[in-house]
Amino acid sequence: MRSRAVLVGILVALLPAAAAITWFARHVRSREIASGVHRGSEVAALDPARVVRLRVEVRGRSVTAVRSPDGWRGEGTVVSGPQVDAVLARLAALRRRGTLARVDALREELGAYGLVRPRARVEATLDDGRALAWAVGEETGRDGAAFLLAPDETVVIAAQEPVAALEAALAALAGTAIPPASRMDVPDIRTPAPASSGSRR
To answer: DSSP secondary structure string, 31-68?
Structure first.
């Protein structure tokens, strides 16, 4: 009987914490919805057919590809059309697991997210002259997430697997390999709770 009373006491003590967590999750979610950012939505709306120029920086190398009537051509180097198309497809397929905040509200945290010196950068210029830019940050290890800087200047949490696939496509286009060991020894970075894309108060 005593052990049952202790167990009931513990459960009662935990109820306020559970209620607070539930409230916080709903609050964060409502702010995401109000700001127009939804979990599972694309990191950026990208139609690969509208991209006329693609610039990639990864592992110290940069490659620029320009669309021509005959397909993709490189600026100062030879590029593979299918590899350019693979990068664009990976970019278009990225989905948000969560959105932390706008980059200007997270300046102190950017180093921890790997976005001060990103693993890779991508810039796609569209046929209307607009430029969309992404930066690939660190992964969180066993948590299975990765940090991105999205074209709307928000810091995004995405699933690690599609981000790794994007980075591999970028490396293939740039002609540089990513050592397998670099993904084996990723320190665990705790994934922060998503917030709205607006500035902190």
So the answer is: HHHHTT--TTSBSS---GGGEEEEEEEETTEEEEEEEE
- List the structure tokens of 63: 């490659």
Handedness of CA 115, 116, 122, 127 (dihedral sign): positive
Under 8 Å between Cβ of 62 and 55: yes
Residue with tokens 């999205």: 150
Give how far the C-alpha of residue 29 lies from the chain's centroid of Cα atoms, to the nearest Å: 18
Q: 152 is written with which tokens?
A: 């709307």
3-class SS of residue 166: helix
What is the b/e burial string over 50-80, where b = at least 16 CB atoms within 10 angstroms of the residue's CB? ebebbbbbbbeeebbbebeeeebeeeeeebe
Distance between CA atoms of 126 and 197, rounded to whole angstroms?
24
What separation in angstroms does the CA of 6 have from each of 13, 16, 18, 19, 68? Answer: 10, 17, 18, 21, 74
Rounded CA gap, 124 and 146, in Å? 21
User: Per-residue pLDDT for 148 more than 80?
Assistant: yes
Structure tokens at 100: 């932390």
Residue 84 tokens read as 């350019």
Quickly state the pLDDT bin for 29 (edges 50, 70, 90): very low
